[in-house]
Amino acid sequence: MRCSVHFVLGLGTVAALGALAEASTPVALPGPGPRARPDGYDVVRENARCEQCHQEIAAEWQSSLHRLAWDDPAFQSAYALEAQSFCRECHAPEHDPEAVSNGARHIGVGCVTCHVQGEQIIGARSISASAGHHAVAGDARLATTSACASCHQFDFREPQRALMQSTVDEHRASPYARETCQSCHMPTVEDAEGHSYRSHDFRVQGDTALLSSAVRAEARRLGDDGIVVSLRAGRVGHAFPTGDLFRRLEVRARIDGDGGPIAKPVVLARRFAMIPGENGPTRIQVGDDRLPANGDPRHVELHFGEEIRSRTVQWEVAYQRMDGPMAQLFGIDPAKDEVIVARGTWSGERSQ
Q1: Which CATH fold would you assign to the domain 208-351?
Q2: What is the pLDDT of residues 215-253, one digit of tens each?
């Protein structure tokens, strides 16, 4: 018998729960590993049991970057160069460094990572056990930004002057601070039977529409040989791009289509420098010209070195996970990996 996906928000199965419907003690929110598990708990087996009942949700999760957190080729390339334990703690939180078998790392951020804490199955609301359904201990925090914070904001491990990722702070500074991460990244959808539930594909990468909605851009002429592209954060609850420190926007333009003169591209990103320290070099952030969460504009000047009057200028903004040299080092084709999030045409005195 397949469980109804709208009935149970939790995605794990722990037989010892019985009829538990409320969290008996405070539980930990999802976060980096290693996770506290009962003796003999088989993470891979229990995660598979979640998938057997919650098939629609499991199918979404299977294609998500949570599922691929460990197996993602870009991450694996980076990890091969710098295999640090704190990388593994977020990308493979179910991995037990003391275990003989490491199969748990391949589930990435699994069903059990968010929905099984200690010996309890956790969901945003309590559900009593019934025939064919396990109980769910309610924890309203699971439906809030707090559930995402531990993995999406953290410090560099060595002494630093900046966060490695600052998405939660950015969210607090945005016009959408009262909305949850889940409202964009886990939108409400319907299953085949018409029941509503939160999507578990954790949409970002590969969702061109979502990425494009994060940017508002327009262009105007600048002198005789250039244009200014003005950009603001759109419907996005954090700086854009956020997350990994290598993510960036590249603003570029050319005259008269393919084969025409190209302006030197401008990159918007976080910038870091290494300075000497008592315990070795320390990384500091020396610049950040991403689109800020509060909606302040960035004005990007692009020059061609020749007259553009009466000519057509095509401009675009590309979202990139990393720069070209890093992409090549990781075996990634930059042209195929980037996403165009805004584009337009300037002709004469008109911008389209």
Answers
A1: Immunoglobulin-like (2.60.40)
A2: 999 999 999 999 999 999 999 999 999 999 999 999 999
